[in-house]
Design brief:
The chain has 313 residues and is of the alpha/beta class. It contains 8 helices and 13 strands. A hairpin with a 2-residue loop joins strand 1 and strand 2 (23-28).
Length: 313
């Protein structure tokens, strides 16, 4: 597949239109506005072929060594030209947003270039997920205007955070304040037996810094850790049920079991809602999956169709 990237497509400044089982989904990346017209139900033949959201691990490289990290440790970086083709196809086939992560995406040399490409040549909303410690003033200037939202990992506060991440918590807060002057941001919070007692303090900090979202991430099992235990899960459920804060809570789609959640798009789930691309160029249902489908020269939509077939087996 070849595409002409010399000029932005005509739709690059328009409202994004996505056709789904639930209706016509309209999205404006500049404001974050979503509108679902559920009185109109497209036929399945006209559904948008790409997932609503796609997370992309640009690299496996990270300068931290958190014990609970599930990301692969094998060296890998996505080729920039492949990324451009995939982003073009995802936009053309109905995705509304992509999230760049890793590893640590600020260690991907072409991060500013790929964010600029997505902003200039597609209608995709661009998000990055980062530990924030490498967000220098210089890097922030190169990203300004080319990302729509940032997610910052903050697993615990104070000494808890420093024990988990091996970095200064005060420095983290300073980086978040620098970031917040340029782009809306949210907090990603891994919940386990060490961090759950810090939730109230973390929410208070997030509110004071004007965070737009607080994403709960129950710790996942890895080869060396069992993940979040049942006692902690019960504590988290009770905490969520009693939450009265002003920062909106969210949770990743695969972690909703037992939590009181509301899905605004209940007819759009699974691969229609989300897919992950790892740093080796494999398409997966989630970032936690070990196996996936390689995105070959036939392109990302062909790989998606293959993943759908394999998921039905």
């Amino acid at each position: 597949m070849s595409a002409n990237f010399q000029n932005p497509p005509s739709g690059a400044t328009r409202i994004k239109v996505r056709k789904t089982a639930g209706g016509i989904h309209l999205f404006n990346r500049a404001t974050g506005t979503n509108v679902l017209i559920d009185e109109i139900r497209p036929s399945p033949a006209n559904f948008s072929r790409a997932p609503r959201q796609v997370s992309i691990a640009l690299t496996n490289t990270c300068d931290l060594s958190c014990e609970y990290c599930y990301a692969p440790k094998s060296p890998a970086n996505l080729p920039l030209e492949d990324l451009k083709r995939w982003l073009w196809d995802l936009d053309e086939h109905g995705s509304i947003g992509i999230g760049f992560g890793g590893g640590e995406p600020t260690l991907y040399p072409a991060l500013p270039e790929v964010c600029e490409f997505a902003t200039r040549y597609t209608n995709l909303a661009v998000t990055i997920t980062t530990h924030a410690h490498r967000l220098s003033a210089k890097l922030l200037r190169t990203l300004e205007g080319n990302i729509n939202f940032a997610r910052v990992s903050m697993d615990g506060v104070g000494s808890t955070y420093e024990a988990n991440r091996g970095r200064s918590f005060d420095n983290l807060i300073g980086r978040i304040k620098d970031l917040s002057s340029l782009v809306p941001f949210g907090i990603n919070f891994v919940v386990n037996s060490d961090t759950i007692s810090d939730l109230d303090t973390a929410i208070d900090l997030a509110s004071k810094m004007d965070a737009r979202e607080f994403l709960l991430l129950p710790e996942q099992a890895t080869s060396s850790r069992r993940g979040m235990d049942e006692d902690t899960r019960r504590m988290l459920t009770t905490w969520v049920e009693g939450y009265t804060g002003t920062v909106p809570l969210s949770v990743s789609e695969g972690d909703t079991d037992g939590l009181p959640t509301c899905n605004p798009l209940p007819l759009e789930t699974g691969l229609a809602a989300f897919v992950h691309i790892d740093a080796a160029g494999n398409l997966k249902r989630t970032s936690y999956d070990r196996l996936g489908v390689e995105i070959s020269q036939t392109g990302i939509i062909a790989a998606l169709e293959q993943l759908k077939k394999e998921s039905e087996i």
